[in-house]
Amino acid sequence: MVDGNTERRPAPDDDQLIEYGIEDKPPLAEAIPLGMQHLLAMFLSTVALPLVIAGAIGLDGAETTFIVQMALLVAGVATIVQVYSIGPVGARLPIVMGTSAIFVAPLINIGGTYGIGAIFGAVIIAAPVEIVIGYFYEDLRRLFPPLVTGIVVMLVGLTLIPVAMEYSAGGVGSEDFGALHNLGLAGLVFVLAIGLNQYFEGFVSISSILIAVVVGYLVAYPLGLLDLSGVAEAAWIEAPTPLQFGVEFHPSAIVIAAFAYVITSIETIGDIEGTTGTVDRRATSDEMSGGLIADGVMSMLAGVFNAFPNTSFSQNVGLIGFTGVASRFVVGICGVFLVILGLVPKVAAVAAAMPDPVLGGAAVVLFGMIFSIGLRIVADRVELERRNLTIIAASVVLGVGVETTPEILEQLPESVSVLVGSGLLVGGVTALVLNLVLPGDGGLGGGSSQTPMSD
């Protein structure tokens, strides 16, 4: 239903009509379920990524539940800030926020070396990098053409493949690692997610991974793989506790996080452009700047409140284009739902109880899709001639190499090894430097000077 002030506008990429524009407010009877749809579209990623990090750095059940709870709470607050803004902080656009996949591998690297306190220290101290990019994004974005951006996004997916496979097998250190029931359960989730996505349309297709995880979760119970004891022990309501795990500061960890903030800034630029593109216009400078600043500020807040950095969620940009509902009022309702869920530990405990093979089956799809997005950026926007192929080859080999063969760095000082042990950092810096120094169309726009990312 469209109110009298709503103009129906054609979406730029298909014949879908925009039912509600950015400033339109659907009736609550429509807005609430539409907001819940955004929640369902982003819920799994918001929960899965903290679960992956928590499991990889060895947090126990109660700590993992708390991390998930904080992830939901911060995502809700960050979404509301993006929608309505506080001064220059926020794009005032329908942008759903959540834990950034860009940070998963770097934070696992930091946490495995220095502990969880170093993760939050790096998240907090490095966050101003993205705030600065928000103020000067027009100048700085020229350093990151599609060639560099695509390589980095591919590396995000590639460096997370071992994590997804380990979870699929039952989790590192589990007594039944690689057992048939683990692999079978992960395979069920994997096949179901792909099948629903490819053979169905509408909301079933959009929510295919979430549906597959719910089915896997239920199947795990008769297999004895679902432990819900933590749900009974969790409180119904609990207020957030700042710096619950303490905070430590290590220069190499901060550098790794800073580079990740640069990359997630480029992702956010693309999502903002994709969001305004659904109503057939370009983002304004204030919207772009406010969105990036909000990313940085809310990620800093996330570190204080024991959550991981937040960024815009591309799947929700796609949902806006699919439904024709671009109302920021609707997305604000999604943010309110997230805040409510973030204050209820029992909800986080249910998510934290997800069996490792179920999470692994979903992670294979999620992390594989991240790689595919990077591949699409390169294939669609970069001329694959000798210079650019050389940059891709060198960056990917070095990035994946240090991530999968960490023993080659054992003779280096710890502060150096953790820095060069980040495949995202090594591969990303390699791409950035080679793009600047190799002859050809390089320099400040090398490898194709088109817009870095858009959805």
What does this structure look like?
It is found in: Cell membrane. It comes from Halostagnicola larsenii XH-48. Its main location: membrane. InterPro entries: NCS2, UacT-like, Xan_ur_permease. The structure is a single chain. This protein has 455 residues and is mainly α. It has one domain (9-138, 175-363). 66% of the residues lie in helices and 2% in strands. It has helices at residues 28-56, 61-84, 104-114, 116-126, 128-135, 137-140, 146-168, 180-199, 202-206, 208-220, 229-233, 251-277, 285-304, 314-323, 328-342, 345-352, 356-381, 386-404, 414-420, 423-437; strands at 9-10, 17-18, 97-99, 310-312. The strands form two sheets. The chain has a two-stranded antiparallel sheet. A two-stranded antiparallel ribbon has the order 3-4. It starts with 8 loop residues before the first strand and ends in an 18-residue tail after the last helix.
Give the count of helical stretches: 20
Query: H/E series, N to C?
Result: EEHHEHHHHHHHHHHHEHHHHHHH
Measured between the Cα atoms of the first and last residue, the distance is: 27 Å
What number of domains?
A: 1
Biggest sheet: strands side by side, in what order? 1-2
Low-confidence parts lasting 5 or more residues at pLDDT below 50? Answer: 1-16, 443-455
Task: Report the radius of gyration as a whole number of Å.
Answer: 21 Å
